[in-house]
Amino acid sequence: MNELEKDMLPQAVMITIYVLSRQYHVPAGSTILTALEYAGFKLKKGVGCREGFCGACASLYRLQGDYKLHGGLGCATVVQPEMQIVQLPYTPAPKAIYHLEELEPVPEVFTQLYPELYRCLSCNTCTKICPQDLQVMDYIQAAVRGDLEQAADLSFDCIQCGLCSARCPAEITQFNVALLARRLVGKYLAKKGKYVEDRIKEVEASKFTAGYQELQDLSPEDLKKRYFERELNNLIY
Amino acid sequence: MLPQVVMIQIPYYPGCTLKNKASNFETSALAAARALGLELVELPRWNCCGAVFSLSSDDLMRHIAPTNIFLRVQEMNRDHLVEDEYRLVTFCAMCFNVLRRTNQRLRESLEDRNKINDFSYLETETYQGRVEIVHLLELLRSMGWDKIQERVQKPLTGLKVAPYYGCMLLRPKDVGIDDPERPTILEELLRSLGAEPVDFPLKLRCCGSYQTVPNKDLVADLAYDILSRAQKAGAEAITTSCPLCAFNLDFRQKEIQQKYPMFLPIPVFYFSQLMAIAFGLPQEVFGLAGHYANPKTLLATKGYLQATSPLEGG
Ligand code: SF4
Ligand code: SF4
Question: ipTM of the assembly?
Answer without folding.
Answer: 0.85
